[in-house]
Amino acid sequence: MSSAAIDRSPVPRRFDSSLPPIVAGDFEVRLARDEADLDASQALRYRVFYEEMAAHATPEMRARRRDFDDFDELCDHLLVIDRRRTGAESIVGTYRLIRRSAAAAYGRFYSAAEYDISRLANWPGEVLEVGRSCVEASARTGSTMNLLWRGIATFVSHFDIEIMFGCASLPGNDLQRLALPLSYLSQKHLAPPELRARALPERYVDMNLLQPGTYDVKLAERMVPPLIKGYLRLGGFVGDGAVIDDQFNTVDVCIVVKTDLVTEKYFKHYERAQRDSE
Questions:
Q1: pLDDT tens sequence across 176-204
Q2: Cβ-count burial of 189 within 10 angstroms (0-12 exposed, 13-18 middle, 19+ buried)?
Q3: What is each CA distance from 53 to 21, 148, 171, 248, in whole angstroms?
Q4: What does the alpha-carbon distance between residue 192 and residue 20 come to, in Å, rounded to a whole number?
Q5: Secondary element (H or E) of residue 220
Q6: Which of 96, 125, 156, 219 could form a disulfide with 161 if both were Cys (CB 3.0 to 4.6 A apart)?
Q7: Structure letter (DSSP) for residue 247
Q8: Rounded Cα–Cα distance for residues 250 and 134 (Å)
Q9: Of the given ranges (125-139, 181-195, 261-275), which has the lowest mean pLDDT?
């Protein structure tokens, strides 16, 4: 991050209560309010990432049964709450949101460990890094994902975010198995130069594993994980190059979305989904 970006930043707020909760039936989406919320979010991340998806936990993580790092202390945590449950068990979804103020306090954005994101970090308007998204297996429904997206759209609007970005993952690290979706993403959804992050030289993996016209585009599209498809539906792009994440046993791509149409597109989709379910 540049010093100019840090100078624009407000003082980080650990638990931000300015965003009103959103209630939809038995579920609610809101920001974490206290240490108990943060702990429950980290516990959910551990269950999904390390127990279900077989990521590699550190000894301290295994002992605490929590997924955590130093960014957690500075950023916002969006939560999906099942109001039929109580306590920590009621938190069934989470998304970590890193504003410029949090990145300035830490010294960098999380994605900077994998990508050169200088063009995004130095954007003159407000920016938001998203990541650590997960939903409990029993709650992985369209309505839960809709609620998470609604929370993101509300956050973006509330804090006047112009650019949203972050590392999104494809499961596994077998590049041959992932050749179809990686090639498709790079060839069909590459970010324009002014928004294009690039994988760091020492971690760069070429995504163009297959030549255009030599593979089934529809099949490749179907192999793109749902979360990444969600970003693409909002007009999102991918950066240049992928990165193998050995800790999480994934291949990461950098997603970037200009948010001027996110709120409008999302709420139109949400209202349509709500009508269809009635």
A1: 999 999 999 999 999 999 999 999 999 99
A2: middle
A3: 30, 21, 8, 8
A4: 34
A5: helix 217-222
A6: 156
A7: T
A8: 14
A9: 261-275
The residue with greater pLDDT, 270 or 235, is 235
User: What residues contact 230, with CB distance under 8 A and at least 6 apart?
Assistant: 145, 149
Residue ranges of E strands in the chain: 22-24, 27-31, 76-82, 91-99, 115-116, 126-135, 161-171, 198-199, 237-238, 243-245, 250-258
In this predicted structure, the answer to whether residue 8 has a pLDDT above a threshold of 50 is: no
Nearest residue to 237 via CA among 181, 151, 165: 165
Q: What is the 3-state secondary structure (H, E, C) of 181-198?
A: HHHHHHHHCECCHHHCCE
Q: Please state which of the four CATH numbers 3.30.70.20, 3.40.640.10, 3.40.630.30, 3.40.50.150 is assigned to the domain occupying 3-277.
A: 3.40.630.30
- The lowest-confidence range among 41-50, 107-116, 150-159 is 150-159
Domain boundaries, the chain: 3-277
Between β-strands 161-171 and 126-135, what pairing exists: parallel, antiparallel or unpaired?
A: parallel
Q: Is the distance from CB of 71 to CB of 108 less than 8 angstroms?
A: no
Place of tokens 């990541």: 131
pLDDT digits (tens, 9 = 90+) for 89-125: 999 999 999 999 899 999 999 999 999 999 999 999 9
Helices H, strands E: what count in the chain?
10, 11
Considering the entire predicted model, what is its pTM? 0.87
Name the residue with tokens 């995504």. Answer: 207
